[in-house]
Amino acid sequence: MSGDDVDPVDWEKARELAYAAGREAAGATEVVSLPDADGRTLAEPLRALTDLPAFPTSSIDGWAVRGPQPWRPVGRVLAGGVAPALEADGTCVEIATGAMVPAGAAALLRVEESTRDNAGLVSGTPRETPEWRLPGEEAHKDEELLPAGTAVDPAVIGVAATCGYETLTVYRRPRAALLVFGDELLTAGTPGAGRVRDSLGPQVPGWLRRCGATVDPAAIAGPVQDTFEAHLAAVRGALATADLVCTTGGTMHGPVDHLHPTLAELNAEYVVNTVAVRPGFPMLLARVPGPDGRPRFLAGLPGNPQSAVIALITLVVPLLAGLQGRALPALTVVEAATAVPGRGDFTHLALATLGHDGRSATPAGHVGSAMLRGLSTSHGFVAVRPGTSAAAGDLVPFLPLPLTPGERR
Questions:
Q1: Which CATH code, of 1.10.3720.10, 3.90.105.10, 1.20.210.10, 3.40.640.10, is assigned to 32-49+143-171?
Q2: pLDDT in tens, 171-225
Q3: What is the Cα–Cα distance from 91 to 82, expressed in whole angstroms?
Q4: Whole-model pTM?
Q5: What fold is seen in the domain 332-400?
Q6: Is 320 helix (H, G, I), strand (E, B) or coil?
Q7: How many CA atoms lie within 13 A of 388 on its CB side?
Q8: How many CA atoms lie within 13 A of 396 on its CB side?
Q9: What value does the CA radius of gyration of the chain take, rounded to a whole number of Å?
C-alpha cells in the first residue's frame, strides 16, 4: 500500500466507507443478563415470548360482575392470583388492578362508583368502555417488538423483562486501544520550553467509550518514540488485543511520521486515506489482517486536538456503529444563526452550540485546529458542503458530538 499522492475522499463518502467497513466486520455476539445489556446493541430481534398481556387484566380496583345487579360477592382476586370462573348471574368478585379477570365476567365496576347495601350486595353502573386489557392487546406471541441493531436502554430492558426474558443476545463491545505519537508531548505539568501538553491521551478514551467501545487503561500508551521500530512495535502490540487502534499524530509524511510505513509493513489496506474536510486533514482508516482471519482497524487521527476529534466523528464513530450492528449516525438539519464560511473544495465542519429548542446552531469561538476551548462548549458541527457557504437563516446539516444525555444543555 502507499499513502502518497492520493485524492482526499469526500467527507460524507468517508463516513459511509467507515461504516460499511464496520458492518462487514461485525458479527461477534454474546449473551448477557438484562441489567448488563444497558448500552449494548441487540444482535437478534426482540420477539414477544407470549401474548402481552398474557391474560385479560383488570385496569381498575373494583368488582368483576356477571348478569344483572345487584351482585353477590363470591370471592376476591388479587394481582398474581387466579380467580375461579363466575358461573352464576348476579355474582361478582372483588378485583385489584393488574389481576386476572375471571372467566364469565361481563364487566368491571370501579370501587369508587359502587355501593353496597346492608345485605352486602353490590350495585353500580359499569362504564361503557371495558376496563380491562385483552390478551395480545400490546403484542402477540412471536411478534417482533424491536429489530436487531436496536440500541438497548432502560426502556428496552423493561420491554424484555415484561416479555419474560432473563438474557439478551447483543453485539460484543469493540475493544479499543490508543497510541499517542510525538516525543515533544508532555504527559504532566504545564506546557513550555517548546513542548506542549498531550490533550488527546486523556480525552480520546472517553469519546471511544461514549461510542460503545471498551478501553482498558493498559491499552493507552505513549508518547511512542519517534522511530519506525517503536511505531511498528507499538501498533503490533496494540492490535494483538484490540479491534480498533487509534493513533494520534504522524498521519503526514514528514521525517518523524512513521504511521504509513508501519501500515505497509503490516500489509494493511486503506479504507479511507485522507478526507476532504477542514479542520481534520489528514486522517486515515486502515484495515489490518488479523491472525484469526478477522480484520482489525487502525484510525490515524491528526495531532492537532480539534482535528483529531473531527477525525473521530468522521471515521471512528461510523466504524464503531457498524461493528456493533447499529445504524450510521444521522445528520440532523438546523438553522445557522450566523454566517458560516466554506472551505473551497473541502467540507467545513464548524463547531457550534445548539439553541434551547435544538433547531438553531451558533458557531463557537476559539475553534482553531489546535484549540479545544470551543469544543468544550459545543454540541457538534455544522457541515458546510464543498463549494458552498452558509448564510444566517440557512438550513444546514448538523453532526452532533457523541455526548451522554444531559451533557451541555
A1: 3.90.105.10
A2: 999 999 999 997 777 677 787 766 777 788 889 999 999 999 999 999 999 899 9
A3: 17
A4: 0.85
A5: Beta-clip (2.40.340)
A6: helix
A7: 13
A8: 36
A9: 30
